[in-house]
TrEMBL record:
Its EC number is 2.1.1.-. GO terms for biological process: methylation. It comes from Kitasatospora misakiensis. It is an enzyme of class 2 (transferase). Pfam families: Methyltransf_25. The keyword Amino-acid biosynthesis does not apply. GO terms for molecular function: methyltransferase activity. Keywords: Methyltransferase, Transferase. InterPro entries: CFA/CMAS, Methyltransf_25, SAM-dependent_MTases_sf. CDD domains: AdoMet_MTases. This is SAM-dependent methyltransferase. Transmembrane segments: none annotated. Residues 41-136 form the Methyltransferase domain.
Length: 248
């Protein structure tokens, strides 16, 4: 089954594709958007546009641009923007985020849970810097190790120990790269659990509701595998931090 389709189905009830609650999203955006009455926001890996739509609803004078490789997710973002009445202030690009270019810089750049698009956290920040207006901010979300990962956790994630660091080291690396954290949010265990149950549950429910679909069995298998990998592997080991950053 196509990985992009799995992701779309799994995020049907949790369009913020990260373990971040609606309340935390609202608080993060309030801090990220607060300095200006108007501006431009770019999401490098926007998916279904969850962050951008919330930003545009909260700030009627802001404009937004989203970039993603999933054409179907972008279609859903357009539909949601029309339903919210913000479609005229939203531009969407079906493009590899590494290839995106713009004539004007952005006051806010987002990449939450999509640093893999650039090969990791610091390469993502380097890419964001190219699009950032003077005095602008970056909102980036990245995984970290809550505790030393076991072989079971690494196996379930398909990750190497070196792929992430602990929280302190993660923040230290960002600071050493010339950024200053001005706000942040560490996802709680309830946020993680709600996200994972939504991910696996939405995918499994789709399979139950579409038993004749040729992808139903694959969807159910993907949901069952992901649930087992989470519960028996990385639950309590993998953390997630969302940082609001400014350049020194």
């Amino acid at each position: 089954m196509d990985r992009q389709m799995i992701s779309r189905l799994a995020h049907a009830h949790h369009p913020i594709a990260a373990p971040v609650s609606d309340g935390a999203v609202a608080t993060l955006l309030e801090r990220a958007l607060a300095p200006e009455d108007e501006g431009r926001v770019l999401d490098l890996g926007c998916g279904q546009g969850g962050w951008l739509l919330r930003a545009l609803v909260a700030r009627p004078r802001w404009r937004a641009v989203g970039v993603d490789l999933d054409a179907a997710a972008l279609t859903r973002a357009r539909e949601s923007a029309e339903a919210a009445g913000v479609q005229r202030r939203l531009g969407l690009h079906h493009l590899d985020a590494r290839e995106f270019t713009a004539r004007e810089p952005f006051e806010l750049i987002l990449n939450v849970g999509a640093t893999h698009s650039f090969g990791g956290l610091l390469p993502t920040l380097a890419a964001a810097r190219e699009h950032l207006a003077p005095g602008g901010r970056v909102l980036v979300g990245e995984c970290f190790w809550e505790c030393e990962p076991s072989s079971a956790a690494l196996g379930s994630l398909g990750s190497a120990r070196e792929e992430y660091a602990d929280l302190a080291t993660t923040v230290d690396r960002v600071v050493a790269d010339g950024w200053t954290p001005v706000f942040g949010h560490v996802s709680s265990r309830p946020e993680w659990d709600a996200y994972e149950f939504s991910w696996t549950g939405s995918l499994a429910a789709w399979a139950l509701d579409h038993p004749e679909h040729p992808d139903a069995a694959d969807a159910r298998a993907a949901a069952d595998l992901h649930r087992a990998e989470w519960l028996h592997g990385y639950r309590g080991t993998l953390g997630f931090v969302t940082l609001l950053l400014r350049r020194d």
